[in-house]
């Protein structure tokens, strides 16, 4: 007798996108789930937190896995695995914010199989990538049987484990604007141990003008709150200004003031998370500047 | 109940069965193929005791359905020793006392196997990152790191 942890489900392994969309449209009302890397979904199914009746495995659709730059965007297929992002010279050299965030997801074995699309669609508060997507002003291409639409990151993340993806839709592509010259970014995560979910994480993306003033700034905080937060006030404080230590401290303070962390029964105090959001942002801005100026 | 016919090559030997899609890869390996060297530890993808190599990539076999490995190649701890001779990583764990209770060892060795395939000459820090998905509750990792260092040198022919 073999042990089986998850509840029974019907399994589909489509070989192209048309099949995926047809299956989704047929079964979404019965709570069909897309299985990508499964590094969150399968655990939730084993623990019987969820028991979908239908599972649509997209692992046999290689066209959902790619990394390229075109039409002003870095385009990443939703099924692209963390390890492929981590091993990509393009990501390492031109998208340091994404690189740092991916490198700090779980552990190398999980990163071999987990996918960027899964991380974003799951929108677990401790995940690294939702805040990164906000800081980059990324956008997502989603599809259903009747067509496709584009959702900006700021409209995508709705709350813990909630996104604006409809039940019959699937995320197919992540698009990050190709960085301006004199751009860099950084991601820092405060966690109990390496690879754990974030207590607080900060994602910073900066572009400077040639006179040294800030052209563009993206700042977002993850982990501390139920949903990743883009700190627009902090971004506005930076844009157009010449960065100095005083301004960076000021931005850190804005972040600490704006953020409203969740009280957790066994977690660190809210005030600590507020303070750390500011501190990590200060460090991430300094590191980004160092990367740009050298 | 849906049943799927799968054939998985484990350590270069095919195993076929009619299974339910909900069967985890680790249970296929242990219960159907009878290869109990692959352990089940935490069940939440934390501990890495169930690590195997699937088509060249280390995966946690408790976080994958067996049906997903259909037609693919799996290497488990039983597949490392050849002709009665330990693999250099196994030898390293023996020589450097890289285990105490031994529960995490098969997963540790499979993680090290992938690490050394990708990076034959890892620094101590790279070794520690390489096994960060595998938990040991006995030794404090020092001897495990030494064992992997030993294996890396042995595989380069230095020992």
Automatic annotation (TrEMBL), chain B:
- Going by the entry's taxonomy, the superkingdom of the source organism is recorded as Archaea
Check the record and name the CDD domains matching this protein. fer2 (cd00207)
Gene Ontology molecular function? 2 iron, 2 sulfur cluster binding; metal ion binding; oxidoreductase activity
Q: Which InterPro entries match?
A: 2Fe-2S-bd, 2Fe-2S-bd_dom_sf, 2Fe-2S_ferredoxin-like_sf, 2Fe-2S_ferredoxin-type, Beta-grasp_dom_sf, Diverse_Oxidoreductases
**Annotated ranges, domain 2Fe-2S ferredoxin-type:** 4-80
Asked if the record carries the keyword Iron-sulfur, the reply is: yes
Keyword annotations for this protein, in alphabetical order, are: 2Fe-2S, Iron, Iron-sulfur, Metal-binding, Oxidoreductase
Q: Name one Pfam family in it.
A: Fer2
Give the PANTHER family listed for this entry: OXIDOREDUCTASE WITH IRON-SULFUR SUBUNIT
Name by which UniProt lists this protein: Carbon monoxide dehydrogenase
Taxon lineage: Archaea, Thermoproteota, Thermoprotei, Sulfolobales, Sulfolobaceae
